[in-house]
From TrEMBL:
InterPro entries: 6-PGluconate_DH-like_C_sf, 6PGD_dom2, Mannitol_DH, Mannitol_DH/Oxidoreductase, Mannitol_DH_C, Mannitol_DH_CS, Mannitol_DH_N, NAD(P)-bd_dom_sf. It comes from the Bacteria. SUPFAM superfamilies: 6-phosphogluconate dehydrogenase C-terminal domain-like, NAD(P)-binding Rossmann-fold domains. The keyword NAD applies. PROSITE patterns: MANNITOL_DHGENASE (PS00974). The keyword Thylakoid does not apply. Residues 29-274 form the Mannitol dehydrogenase N-terminal domain. This is Mannitol dehydrogenase family protein.
């Protein structure tokens, strides 16, 4: 079969949706750092919808840690398929909004030159929570992070996202070129403010004047982003290639649902996102809190408990009625009361989330969602727990999510098999777990003492400790399935 490329499009079956514009007329207005699965199912699709009348807003993608991205998409003229899947079937669409891909590790100078050119007015990011090189509990730059230490000593040879952004901004400042707008599309709390804090701090460590210039002149609009995008498997590649009649080395599988809420703060201009379904708002905070707590808090809880119970995918766990009850009760009784979303029907939002999690066509691995828990727990579960404790309300189900994470980072599943715990802190986490042995209390005490995750307050929270340790004792003794069954109100 021929490789997906501009030339292969003319032979695509009628069922495949193709770009509705002439790609040869496009110029880039955006550099996206972290050209991974989510960006290609989300922002790149919104841009694909608006390029017909806005040809100067194409995307140049940069991969900072995945050289295989360019190896896969380069030979395909950066074309790829988005396969939207649900119980009714799969709808393939070829996306053309990415016009070039730069491998930051080997083409750093070309990346910096591109980011410094005036036609680039937005630099957006989906670099995973760990890509911000920050302290997840405080949102501050971690100046001791190895990438930051390296980049402060070698600013023109930066390898971190904050380092690359500052190096490009410094070039624009020196050339008297207006700065680009930095738009984080990651699942970070207050992702715009957090990104501004991190980038400004990094700049000030390079040069105090540069730090002030960044803080005073660069816009960092916040966003809430939502579309469930599992990592692509070889089976997906085979299925999509058959569907489109050409070999696609990296198609993207996703769900029908998509949402994008963006703070309207783009001094250098922006595409008309509102014409393609994005919501432009003054403050994204309430939307972000709702999504990070209701969707991501539930996702992480399902991922640890589901993995321990032997469910490979979220949809498998959602076939267990006790798991469905757990998430429904956690959302209804413990998360929704902490949200202030006038005009949003939270019960309907909840029921929509449960249906999305149950999507039988989306094989979202519990192991994938379980990744990087140290970077995710603060905004997904711990913030909600703090609010519930402050108001003297129950945290039973939320605390089970934390207990399941603590059990998971022991690195041994309920059948005695090892778990590949992927996390920037995995060595420290597993060392603490090994030290704790089979003592639930020792495990809790060791992990809650990590300020990067739990801050400095939860270590002294006796209610938090007793509820989490109680769940750990049940997980140790009865396993995840029984612990969930015992907790849910039947
Ligand atoms: P992915 O693994 O497909 O892509 C991650 C991208 O981040 C890659 O391009 C990689 O090179 C880059 N990266 C990884 N570690 C990095 C580091 N330390 N510094 C700089 N760049 C780094 O993952 P995917 O699915 O694209 O998700 C990325 C982020 O998008 C998530 O962490 C989350 O913040 C956000 N997101 C993901 C959703 C999903 O369902 N996959 C949904 C909503 C948001
Ligand atoms: C998931 C998110 O992998 C994870 O941590 O919880 O990527 C989730 O799929 C998205 O936030 C959905 O919008």
């Amino acid at each position: 079969m021929t490789r997906l490329s501009t030339n292969s499009l003319s032979n695509a079956p009628a069922s495949v949706v193709l770009p509705a514009y002439d790609r040869t007329g496009l110029t880039a207005g955006i550099v996206h750092l972290g050209i991974g699965a989510f960006h290609r199912a989300h922002m790149a699709v919104y841009l694909d919808d608006l390029l017909k009348d806005n040809a100067d807003w194409a995307i140049i993608g940069a991969s900072l840690r995945r050289p295989d991205t360019k190896q896969a998409l380069g030979p395909q003229d950066c074309l790829y398929t988005v396969a939207v899947r649900d119980a009714s079937g799969t709808k393939p669409r070829v996306i053309g909004s990415i016009v070039d891909i730069i491998d930051a590790n080997v083409e750093r100078e070309r990346l910096l030159e591109t980011m410094a050119s005036p036609n680039i007015r937005i630099v957006s990011l989906t670099i995973t929570e760990k890509g911000y090189c920050h302290d997840p509990a405080t949102g501050e730059l971690d100046a001791k992070h190895p990438d930051i230490v390296h980049d402060l000593a070698n600013p023109e040879n930066a390898r971190s996202a904050p380092g690359l952004i500052v190096a490009a901004l410094a070039r624009r400042r020196a050339a008297d070129v207006a700065p680009f707008t930095v738009m984080s599309c990651d699942n970070l709390p207050s992702n715009g403010v957090t990104c501004q804090r991190i980038v400004s701090r990094f700049a000030s460590l390079i040069d105090a004047d540069l730090g002030r210039w960044v803080a005073d002149n660069v816009a960092f609009p916040g966003t809430m982003v939502d579309r469930i995008v599992p990592a692509t498997t070889d089976a997906d590649r085979e299925a999509v290639s058959k569907m489109i009649g050409a070999d696609d080395a990296w198609p993207i599988m996703t769900e029908p649902y998509t949402q994008w809420v963006i703070e309207d703060n783009f001094p250098g201009g922006r595409p008309p996102f509102e014409t393609v379904g994005a919501q432009l708002v003054e403050s994204v905070e309430p939307f972000e809190l709702m999504k990070l707590r209701m969707l991501n808090g539930s996702h992480s809880t399902l991922s640890y408990l589901g993995y321990l119970a032997g469910y490979e995918h979220v949809s498998d766990a959602m076939e267990d009625e006790n798991f469905v009850k757990l998430v429904h009760q956690m959302q209804t009784d413990e998360i929704m009361p902490t949200l202030d979303m006038p005009g949003t029907d939270l019960p309907t939002y909840r029921d929509q989330l449960l249906a999305r999690f149950a999507n039988p066509a989306l094989k979202h691995r519990t192991w994938q969602i379980a990744m990087d828990g140290s970077q995710k727990l603060p905004q997904r579960l711990l913030g909600t727990i703090r609010d519930r404790l402050a108001s003297g309300n129950s945290i039973d189900r939320l605390a089970l999510g934390v207990a399941a994470w603590m059990r998971y980072v022991m690195g041994i599943d309920e059948n005695g098999k090892s778990i590949e715990v992927k996390d920037p802190m995995s060595m420290r986490l597993m060392a603490i777990a090994a030290e704790a042995g089979q003592s639930p209390e020792a495990l809790f005490d060791g992990l809650v003492a990590l300020p990067e995750i739990f801050g400095s307050d939860l270590i002294d929270q006796q209610v938090f400790k007793s509820v989490v340790v109680g769940h750990l004792e049940n997980l140790f003794e009865h396993g995840a399935s029984q612990t969930v069954a015992d907790l849910v109100v039947q």
